[in-house]
Specification:
2 copies of one chain form a homodimer.
Chain A (H helix, E strand, L loop, with lengths): L6 H9 L4 E4 L6 H16 L4 E4 L24 E5 L11 H5 L5 E4 L10 E4 L6 H11 L6 H14 L10 H12 L4 H10 L3 H13 L1 E3 L4 E6 L1 H7 L21 E7 L5 E7 L5 H6 L4 E2 L3 E6 L3 H18 L4
Chain lengths: 323, 323
Amino acid sequence: MLMTIDYAKAAGLLLSNDDILIISHMNPDGDTLGCAFALCRALIQKGKRARVICSDHIPSKYSYLSDGLDIQEFRPSFITTVDVADIKLLGGNLEDRYGEIINLSIDHHGSNKMFAEYNCVDSYAGAAAEIIYKVILEMGVSIDTDIANCIYTGLSTDTGCFRYSNATAQTYRIAAEMLDAGAESSSINTVMFESKSLAFLKLQQLCIDGMKVFFNDRCSVVTLTQDMYKKSGIDDTESESISSLARQVEGVYVGVTIRERENGKCKVSIRSHSPVDAAEICAKMNGGGHNRAAGCELSMSVEQTTQEVLKHIKQALIENGII
Amino acid sequence: MLMTIDYAKAAGLLLSNDDILIISHMNPDGDTLGCAFALCRALIQKGKRARVICSDHIPSKYSYLSDGLDIQEFRPSFITTVDVADIKLLGGNLEDRYGEIINLSIDHHGSNKMFAEYNCVDSYAGAAAEIIYKVILEMGVSIDTDIANCIYTGLSTDTGCFRYSNATAQTYRIAAEMLDAGAESSSINTVMFESKSLAFLKLQQLCIDGMKVFFNDRCSVVTLTQDMYKKSGIDDTESESISSLARQVEGVYVGVTIRERENGKCKVSIRSHSPVDAAEICAKMNGGGHNRAAGCELSMSVEQTTQEVLKHIKQALIENGII
């Protein structure tokens, strides 16, 4: 396993290469995409050819991140991943195609597998965008409005709009720099956090109706079945932010959202309050993530998944002296 | 009308007086209370006697702001208001009692009536807490964890957790300073924004069920009747955050929440997206507030209130070329 490299070294690697392919993680979020397009724009500003790829469709709400960027065609000679903890998270055929030839990984997950030739990993960063900001500063890039919007998007989305404990003083300071550079923070936050379709609000309602609580109301479980998706007319991507609902109930330490997939598997999102570690619980079911937000996927029915998840949560609640 | 004074002058006034009464506005929020208790703690640190009063009950979720503060008894010799734009907003009998003898007003509302002997008003500040921070720095106060928690609460609550356009680079920078001083940002945000009782979630559901849209879906109206309060078992204070619901619907420029009071009057909250000015709309109904969040109270039935409010909103939407 290689040690992590510093920002200056990462910047040097990027500057001394060209035709750079940037890969985000699958099921892309604002942090991985904000990082990818900020880095892409920075490299182009430095006279390089660069492009971003993702194994999944990029939801339209993120389209402003790539506004005005032409897709550059080239045979990659340097491959970097952003906000990717494990090559399994590249998704699609990207793991097979690139998994073993990644030159540089820029990431903030404590669980990072150090899979690249060079790994620039800083788990102190609340968002991977904090690291990208520091790397592109080292590259001598001037932060324009487009880059500022990309970085702000990463900071804001990965910290629940500065709400969660991973937002540190550094996160706030970089956000201030991005506002000074012209980041349209309030428009970005409206798109990322406020705008909800009526279909979404109806789905949320179905979820509240069906919400179940366990272990002296310390754990709540929301289930989204294929039937509920159909009833509300919403897709899986749009339903992502339902994940925070379960944890919002007063007194709850662990909020679980179970999504039934079309392929019969179940996707589990776990959000927790301190001291319960969501990543630890998910690790027991071959998943992972952050301390307060993690996930896993189980090849079981909704009922079996619920039982399996509750078993591990009960253990965690007991270990933490909560029940 | 007296001109506004600078932070240093405000600090000087506070330092050269003693037995200081600090008054928040009625229906207190996190900013007015955060300011009041931050200032109170700062004054006590400087060896003064000081206490905070508010004409309304302070909701229990704010109790940490005053933790460990003893109520000091004295006959006030210097009176200051925080985050109060108009003496009408003192509420209860405080307008009669103190309205004409306020020595210092510290505020960030552009609509401030400059009612005090000295007015330290900076409408650039996203939260009044930004001004309090600067004033107490000028006073030579050392920002301890308690003061940091008070100021962070003001910053976060008045900007919708840094989501709205009033959160400037300055807001983020002061938040970073507060985190460095020990502010428990994530716990505060959990209490202020995340914890919702099941009763609240049920009320939210009743609101979504009854939500009406007008003017090509550019305006949405949520109505809370006394009957709905009774059904959900929630009180008026706890229902405050429902106000943001109406504006959350995709495509909506103006979100209206109408609350039926026990006295038969109706309280109206208007939230808008740029370019619609919520304060301008409310001013036409003898109310006021900020550009994106304002309110008023009408002595009419819910139906009459709805018609009156819609009339002014229609005009604003036409003037802004939205319909």
